[in-house]
Amino acid sequence: xxxxxxxxxxxxxxxxxxxxxxxxLTTDHKRIGILYLGxxxxxxxxxxxxxxxxxxxxxxxxxxxxxxxxYNATFTVHGIIMIxxxxxxxxxxxxxxxxxxxxxxxxxxxxxxxxxxSWYCYVAGGLxxxxxxxxxxxAPDTGWTFYVPFSTQTTTNVNLAVLGAFILGFSSIxxxxxxxxxxxxxxxxxxxxxxLPMFVWTLYATAWIQILATPMLGITLVLxxxxxxxxxxxxxxxRGGDPILYQHLFWIYSHPAxxxxxxxxxxxxxxIIPTFARKPLFGYWAMAISSLAIAFAGxxxxxxxxxxxxxxxxxxxxxxxxxxIVAIPSAIKVFxxxxxLYKGSIELAPPMLFALAFIxxxxxxxxxxxxxxxxxxxxxxxxxxxxxxxxxxxxxxGAGFAFFAALHFWLPKFTGRMYRHKPAVIAxxxxxxxxxxxxxxxxxxxxxxxxxxxxxxxxxxxxxxxxATVGSWILAAGILLMFYNLWQGIRRGRPVGNNPWGGAxxxxxxxxxxxxxxxxAEDPVVTKGPYDYKGVVADEY
Amino acid sequence: MDQYANPxxxxxxxxxxxxxxxxxxxxxxxxxxxxxxVVKYRRSKYPEPTSDNDGNIWLETxxxxxxxxxxxxxxxxxxxxxxxxxEVPAGALEIKATARMWSWQFEYPDGRKTSxxxxxxxxxxxxxLHSVDVLHNFFVPAFRIKRDTVPGMENYxxxxxxxxxxxxxxxxxxxxxxxxxxxxxxxxxxQEAYADWSKPLEPSGDPRGLxxxxxxxxxGCHSLDGSDNIGPSLFELAGQTRKLIRDGQPVEVAIDExxxxxxxxxxxxxxxxxxxxxxxxxxxxxxxxxxxxxxxDYLLGKVVAATTAPDADQLxxxxxxxxxxxxxxxxxxxxxxKGIGQRDVTIERDGKExxxxxxxEYLRRALLEPEADMVKGYAPMMPAADYLSPEQIDVIIEHxxxx
Lengths: 541, 403
What we know:
The complex is a heterodimer.
Chain A: H1 19-24, H2 29-57, H3 68-103, H4 112-134, H5 150-153, H6 158-185, H7 198-230, H8 243-277, H9 284-297, H10 313-341, H11 350-373, H12 375-381, H13 385-415, E1 417-418, H14 421-448, H15 462-492, E2 494-495
Antiparallel strand pairs in A: 1-2
Helix pairs in contact in A: 2-3, 2-4, 2-15, 3-4, 3-6, 3-7, 3-8, 3-13, 4-6, 6-7, 7-8, 7-9, 8-10, 8-11, 8-13, 9-10, 10-11, 11-13, 11-14, 13-14, 14-15
Chain B: H1 7-40, H2 57-86, E1 93-100, E2 103-107, E3 113-114, E4 117-120, E5 125-131, E6 136-140, E7 145-149, E8 155-159, E9 165-171, E10 184-189, H3 191-197, H4 208-215, E11 241-246, E12 249-254, H5 257-265, E13 271-272, H6 289-299, H7 312-318, E14 344-349, E15 352-357, H8 360-368, E16 374-375, H9 390-401
Parallel strand pairs in B: 1-5, 4-10
Antiparallel strand pairs in B: 1-2, 2-3, 5-8, 6-7, 6-9, 9-10, 11-12, 11-13, 14-15, 14-16
Helix pairs in contact in B: 1-2, 4-6, 5-6, 7-9, 8-9
């Protein structure tokens, strides 16, 4: 390591406290964003290893590297970490915290101390979730959905995992409250609602879901707790309870939660595409309103996870109808992104490649969702590998790739240093190929009829499972190369100026990395929209 | 094959093809247009954008309204075909399926129980779905049907098997450590074969030997009435002789107990002249020594009077016990039955460990209150067997103690 590493300026050196306490007790939104980012990347890598182990077990029928109990624990912990500790907080907590105040011309969020508390909730919940793997009756084996009655009967350490998820929920709620308040109260002079970057609009829509839906998760998990500890009987048909009630309660949160995961990703893509096409985002208001529409309609479709559960056919009719409604705003977004490219000046820099991969993969995920939303076809596809593939197309190919796009877009802003582009493009290529080989095979084997959560399977499913596992290796190689390249960039990349990409939003007008309180002595005054690239020149690096 | 022979699969496939077809077209369109734009408007060719267009109300209206109309057709088509999955044709044969960790049991109108689902072809079958413990899911990919089994609630599916054969049944709702092994089959038979199969058993029951012959499929090749078939008939064997080929030489032997046992256990040793040596051997694992004796006794006309007591092996099979407890000593989710009558077990009672000898009292408690004394090293997940009658429990205990 050379002398020049880590001599970051800006908010890294400023602040009331020095050293580790300067980070652990910070109320600076940028430092909290960085704290989140570090934790989230670590969580992602842990859960990725578990995912690779799942794929390795499935390379051939029968027991390959682990037996059924270990397999069940592995996919459960993979799911819990990826969903509650990676994808839900990923863009919102890391990039949202860092960028939201800068995007609206503010010096911090409305409640900086609450912001730090939400990070501690995240850490506490994460530690409990990880402790549940190693303590009690063994790692939880319920799947991330904790379906009763199995979850109330199993002797594995579900209690601790549930407690962890409960506390993580508070982290999410506090962030949501902070963001809604900040967007309403702290916009700079001239920052009208019509000049908000689309990323802020999506964070705004997301924050409302976090505030309104997450308490449902808390309540549901408390009920599971009561059921396990005191045998409350709420979900036990023999005592007048109803196991299907649990599924309603769980999905009333967990379906909107997938929009917590995807909406900020859509925001990221809506920033990157105009920047690298040097053209205003097509249909600004349609994009803003469709974000709110997704948040609203997405809260009304939870029971489309339950067509096969035994709920009434009338409910199937209603929820299938509502599910197709929520497809519309997503389709509008895709069309508008593509129209933004029309007659632009397009540069295929790494963030742009990840954003384009997002559109392709999210489109596949969304279109696959149509077959799951239609009542008849869902009967065949439900609870097969198709659902797992579909979910990964939207959440990993969508939200995950948006997270990687955001890393490549904003890390130079966060650190003032640029990674190398060539390895970034190679990593992107590996990831794109590996991803589609992996999850397209999973979708195909699901259409063939392979149920999900099987550690062992019949011989007719072997070929596609083998292909999927090979895909997982290509994908993992790409991810490792990507992180290695980004890490090298952070440590010893070439310094960049304020605006390496030629962006028009406010963060590109302040130094990289930004100073404490972002904007120097005078508050910024906004006079133009977020995608007005006239006269904006990218800095050489 | 008749177009409507597999009506439930037809209904689902209609919708799948419609939606996947449309999706593929749309995806292709999106991808091609994106690639064209990215290539055509690349920065090396256009250093600055050639338009600053940021919206078009007409375009945006079109691509809002058009998708609404398309997805509404998908919704409606999906729904109307779903209705076809829910409306059971009149006169469907009703079979009750019970799921438990981790096996299936099917109960027919006459009270007969099996672990595979036997049905006639081209007949609508309504399967009512029940669970005794946690959620499971009855999934038959070939018929595109799937429905949860929920404790305390009755669900149903219906299907019609298009042709004879085996169709996989999977448990599709995650249910714990045995989830991936909770697989069985639909066995679709011709209507005639099914009528035969479902002939009511005499209350006194067939002799055990005959039951074994039927269960093992012996009668598929060997007639019982003297008519010729793939193998020699088994009609009135006592006192007969057989011409055999032994070591390449023709010999004639009298049919006796010893001969029959060899013919079943090692059929390739002595083949009856004029028949191909194609019969598979039936070892101890397939036909137990007891059953072999019953078969031989039956064939030689020494039929022992059938008992009315329930058959322990059958009870263990029907009630799914063998889903977790192996009978051959292999390690499973739960302790094996092999040798259970002769061993000591270490159990946990009220948080303390103690080692006891397996006796009738212990087994009864293990069946009826499985959580009271847990065998060390196993998770308390067995459901109480309180659905068995006292006689059935007695038979099982007696049987297990003899292991």
